[in-house]
Specification:
- Helices cover 49% and strands 0% of the residues.
- The chain is mainly alpha-helical.
- Among the domains are: 45 residues, no CATH class; 68 residues.
- 3% of the residues are buried.
Length: 178
């Protein structure tokens, strides 16, 4: 059997079997070595697990994904590094889910408020028959401006015994310095 008449990159004679032209397959087709190397590399790579459904994921879905990643690491279907990435993504999604749900609820409430205002025909959204109190108007303005609807009249609660009055604690109005 004849050997290839070409030289390797190192300058030594190629020892591969020669084809009809006197060159081995790779010296006769120099572009094929690169392509075949890529194919082999892709074939040897670890396959990622099937992606979950495209819909939103809840806590049970995240738990199932993590359990599947653990099984896949133990059966050597995926690397621990890939499972770590899956775990970090699940943790991130778990942390942002409550915020996303809250934002969706606020948007839904704002939409409902806008519908109520448009159906009432009144730009303030309140009835104009005189039944709306000043507190309801303030609450409505707070909601529209994104502030808390808690009244400003909250006073601190002073705890005392049954026999003590709320103001002084011992039945007298204490002044500072007495």
């Amino acid at each position: 059997m004849q050997t290839c008449r070409a030289n390797t990159r190192a300058g030594t004679p190629c020892r591969a079997p020669a084809g009809p032209e006197g060159l081995c397959f790779f010296h006769a087709n120099p572009d094929k070595a690169h392509v075949l190397g890529q194919v082999g590399g892709r074939k040897n790579r670890h396959q990622l697990p099937e992606p979950p459904s495209a819909g939103p994921l809840n806590a049970a879905d995240l738990s199932n994904i993590l359990a599947e990643a653990i099984r896949d690491v133990r059966s050597k279907k995926i690397t621990p590094r890939a499972a770590s990435a899956i775990s970090q993504l699940c943790n991130s999604l778990h942390r942002v889910t409550p915020t996303a749900e809250l934002e969706a609820r606020v948007a839904r409430l704002e939409h409902q408020l806008a519908e109520q205002q448009s159906t009432a025909g009144d730009p303030s959204g309140l009835e104009t028959n005189g039944t709306a109190t000043a507190h309801e108007e303030d609450t409505q303005q707070d909601i529209e401006q994104g502030r808390s609807a808690a009244p400003d009249t909250c006073q601190p609660v002073v705890m005392g015994t049954e026999n003590e009055s709320v103001e002084g604690g011992d039945g007298t109005d204490d002044e500072e310095g007495e």
